[in-house]
Amino acid sequence: MTSPIINTKQLNAQLDNPNLILLDVSTPKVTGGNTDEQNQTIPGAIVVNLKRDFSDPSGTFPNTVPTPKQFEETCNRLGITNTSTVVVFDNLGVYSSPRVWWLFKLMGHQDVQVLDGGLPEWINSGYPTIESIAWDRNSMQNKTTSYVVDYQPAWVKSYDDIVQNTSESKFTIVDARSKGRFDGTAPEPRKHLQSGHIPNSLNLPYQEVLNENKFKSPQELNEIFSTLGADDKTTYSCGSGLTACIILLAGQLAGINSMNVFDGSWTAWAELQNLKKVD
């Protein structure tokens, strides 16, 4: 089975592969600042917009999973086929790229990887960059690709699934937000919402599975997930479904086979539980 991550040396060796689709999925960080790399990208990369190209714009919550039809249309517009070798990366090391990796897997794509360390690691490795230019949505209109999705709906957990699980405890929920947000002692970036956590959920801040913007070793990750008690039924959550995919991918590297994400995550839970801040 193909590893979910690829290093900079391996990617550099593939840049001339005509089947390669390199996607720059950089997005502003929800908490904290951005980096100096935000106006650069890897030569040959297609710069896409996570919310416009890989989310459902009509969704109730941020980063809602696109419909299969929306995903197919995006792939066709970008010239992606079912057999394309897709590599995704972002300018924060490992941040938004695992979300797009997960979406491709969710839609049945087999050959997709995350660049470990992202653009910062590419630059640190001495490889060249070019100025980042937003992709022209109309520039691929003459492509004749006809992407066909093989959707895995069981991987997308709804609010109702989570509510039911709070009483039945059929699976563990692991939350990628910071300890302060999880404990309710630090504010949410979405200022109208209270912080806190879903009952019986566990906390694994996504930074704990990374070391200098790259994933920790499989051995280190295995120890983290074993201590946590995660298993193949685990569902991952965060603020809006983005960083949940970082710890999900880390779980894959540790041998945990769950691909389940609570779409909407804490934002959906807090909104639908009416956990609003009171001024």
From TrEMBL:
Give the residue range of the signal peptide: none
What this protein is called in its record is: 3-mercaptopyruvate sulfurtransferase
High-level lineage: Bacteria, Pseudomonadati, Bacteroidota, Flavobacteriia, Flavobacteriales
| Enzyme class, first EC level, given as a word | transferase
Q: Name one Pfam family in it.
A: Rhodanese
Q: What InterPro entries does this protein's entry cite?
A: Rhodanese-like_dom, Rhodanese-like_dom_sf, TST/MPST-like
The encoding gene is sseA
Keyword entries, A-Z: Repeat, Transferase
Q: Which GO terms describe its molecular function?
A: 3-mercaptopyruvate sulfurtransferase activity; thiosulfate-cyanide sulfurtransferase activity
The EC code for this enzyme is: 2.8.1.2
Q: Where is the Rhodanese domain?
A: 16-131, 167-274
This protein's species is Parvicella tangerina
Question: What is the top-level taxon of the source organism?
Answer: Bacteria
Determine if Ribonucleoprotein is one of this entry's keywords: no
**Listed SMART domains:** RHOD (SM00450)
